[in-house]
């Protein structure tokens, strides 16, 4: 079967060009070659990291690192209650995506009541803490400054008390560098919590809460010259179109719905809570039988996985592809 493949670069939503491919040749092992080269079956299959979206009670634990390089760190965190300190970054903006549950984000620039599906950005140097109720969220640490690419749905507010039952209490502040990685704190010291939160009255800046446009296939929300973060909607049916990003790694987090990811490094059935990294230059397409969405991070530099692998991709076979095609058509 013939399919179209779009050759993309990170800074543009329009393809450099589109190429017509034989889908079997695109995914199958290459033709034999007399020239020494790394063959298809010598490349490792894609790997998945999975954290359940359903809250499971356990003692407080620091955020889990999932992917990291010298300039980006991606974490997953679940929390019920307060975290044990306020946090201030020296070198990065801290972006978050709310997966599930309720979370009060308390900062020097005001308070946000986060709902699932929302994003926000904490600028470098702004202290913050969380009060969560059976909640989980993603964290992206990216060298500052990071720019919002769409208008905000709403802003943080000066709220006192920040949540019902709150009372100012002895608190600590941790100042950290190097992507906010646990164990890389510069100093930890006591603070007056009320005094810290009342900074909002002296600062005109506010956190911008973003929610993607559900009518668009892809909404890019944040960007620098080296990173883009957005949300991609997937719907059943339609043309199966491949995409090859020529200048960026892509990390995907399956937020809602199920889909099958077809790539030159294997085929994966993705469910909510799954992370996967698609290396630069690898062609892929998504097949969905239900509506869903996933968070996408594009990075000009390779972002290796640091978390434990949950499962690996299946090798391509004509039979597997035919079954997917039949499932979509039915």
TrEMBL record:
Gene3D superfamilies: Jelly Rolls. This is Homogentisate 1,2-dioxygenase.
């Amino acid at each position: 079967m013939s399919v179209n493949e779009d050759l993309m670069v990170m800074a543009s939503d329009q393809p450099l060009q589109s190429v017509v491919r034989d889908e079997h040749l695109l995914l199958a092992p290459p033709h034999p070659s007399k020239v020494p080269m790394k063959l298809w079956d010598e490349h490792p299959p894609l790997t998945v990291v999975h954290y359940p979206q359903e809250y499971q009670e356990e003692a407080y634990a620091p955020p889990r690192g999932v992917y990291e390089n010298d300039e980006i760190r991606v974490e997953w965190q679940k929390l019920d209650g307060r975290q044990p300190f306020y946090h201030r970054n020296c070198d990065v903006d801290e972006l978050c995506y709310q997966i599930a549950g309720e979370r009060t984000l308390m900062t020097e620039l005001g308070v946000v009541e986060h709902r699932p599906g929302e994003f926000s950005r904490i600028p470098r140097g702004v202290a913050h803490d969380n009060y969560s109720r059976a909640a989980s969220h993603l964290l992206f640490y990216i060298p500052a400054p990071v720019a919002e690419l769409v208008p905000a749905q709403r802003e943080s507010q000066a709220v006192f008390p920040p949540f019902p039952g709150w009372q100012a209490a002895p608190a600590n502040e941790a100042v950290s560098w190097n992507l906010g990685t646990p164990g890389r704190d510069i100093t930890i010291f006591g603070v007056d919590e009320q005094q810290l939160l009342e900074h909002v009255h002296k600062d005109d800046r506010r956190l911008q809460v973003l929610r993607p446009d559900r009518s668009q296939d892809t909404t890019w929300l944040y960007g620098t010259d080296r990173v883009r973060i957005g949300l991609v909607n997937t719907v059943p049916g339609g043309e199966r179109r491949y995409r090859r990003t020529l200048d960026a790694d892509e990390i995907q987090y399956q937020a809602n719905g199920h889909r099958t990811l077809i790539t030159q490094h294997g085929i994966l059935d993705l469910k909510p809570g799954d992370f996967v990294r698609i290396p630069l230059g690898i062609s892929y397409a998504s097949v969905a039988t239900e509506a869903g969405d996933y968070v996408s991070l594009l990075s000009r530099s390779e972002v290796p996985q640091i978390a434990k692998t949950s499962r690996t991709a299946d090798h391509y076979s004509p039979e597997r592809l035919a079954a997917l095609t039949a499932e979509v058509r039915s």
